[in-house]
Amino acid sequence: MLKSRYAGLGAILALGVVAGAAFAQDKPVAGDVKEGSLKGKTLTLVSYGGIYQDGQAAALKEFVDKSGVKLLNDGPTEIAKLQAQVESGNVTWDVIDSTNVITAQHCGDLFMPIDTSIVDISKLPAGSKTDDCSVPAMGYGLIVVYNTKKYGANPPKTWADFYDTAKFPGKRAIEGIAGELDPGVLEGALLADGVAPEQVYPIDAPRALRKLASIRGDIVFWNSGAHAQQLVEGGQVDMALLWSGRAYSAVKNGAPFAPMWDQWMPEADTITVPKGAKNPKASMALINYYLGADQQAKLSELTSYSPINVDAKPQLDDLAKTYLTTTPERDKDRFPLDVAWWAKNNDAMTSAYANWLAR
């Protein structure tokens, strides 16, 4: 930790500085934590389980060892459960992994602003911080992958191709989770229907759903990331709209598929502190450590998700490198999702999609 600039202002101020030194510094450095600064404290990290949460725990191991904190894991993240905690005034979670749409939607009512006197955000990729209450937890994308054996030398290249079942016959896998909707599903449908990229927002949900309905007979709906991966690996579909991490895993396991990067949809989990958290400074200290270059590199190596510290240099195999979504090559291909628009319209879009699924 850097010495406080107020160290020479007298005994009273010095005591105050010492009391806060465990959490704050003049210029916080992502990945740093003071030895023994959280001894005797307990924090609960809430995330989505599986290899991802295991990777987060591994990336935070040195934080636990060095700070002396006791770190518990819980999950999955459920907004209804968090809302009940906040409304009752008994918040038992300390750090939450959610999505950028959810944290933007509930910034101020369920989540508190990130304290930048504790959390160093200087190494985040440009434009990746989408609201005041969170920082990105990792990067990934909603992408189209296609069967390289089936489509050979003339593979699909655009959203229009994904929806063209005459030119590119075959089954398509698309998210079909009732009550959930990833940004990107409706946008892709509108792009395929001829909407100019700059006119996609505000989303015309009826038009997007009509486009989806035009290929409904060829859609296989997946109900989880694992299910989407299984459909690809099992050859039950010829194209799939799924998360990039799941696509990578399927290809690594031998599925003859390749990604279509044109106008892919950038997604990001976010990490945040719930409103009413019992020890928010300690929570912020964990987030600051989590954002370190070494920690992000380790997380990427363990999960295949893209690091969100620009100095992170994960050691990845050649295949994994092609699925990173935070490279300059991927940045120029992406469709810019409007997270702020989604934060205001998430409930309406999710409801419209659920009604369409139920028909």
Written description of the protein model:
Residues 1-22 have low confidence and may be disordered. The protein is 38% helix and 16% strand. It is α/β, with parallel strands linked by helices and 359 residues long.
Secondary structure blueprint with pairings:
Blueprint (H helix, E strand, L loop, with lengths): L10 H10 L21 E5 L3 H10 L1 H7 L2 E5 L4 H10 L6 E5 H6 L28 E14 H4 L7 H4 L9 E4 L9 H8 L12 H9 L5 E4 L2 H9 L5 E5 H9 L4 E16 L7 H11 L2 H11 L14 H5 L5 H6 L5 H19 L2
Helix pairs in contact: 2-13, 8-9, 10-11
Mean pLDDT: 92
From the N-terminal CA to the C-terminal CA, the straight-line distance is 58 Å
The largest sheet has its strands arranged as 2-1-3-8-4-7-5-6
- Could you list the spans in which at least 5 consecutive residues all have pLDDT below 50? 1-22
| Beta strand count | 8
Topology order in helix (H) and strand (E) letters = HEHHEHEHEHHEHHEHEHEHHHHH
- Fraction of helical residues: 25-40%
What about the largest sheet? Answer: 8 strands, mixed
Number of helices: 16
By secondary-structure content and strand pairing, the structural class works out as alpha/beta
Oligomer: single chain
Percentage of residues in DSSP E strands: 15-25%
Cα-atom radius of gyration = 22 Å
Describe the global form. Answer: globular
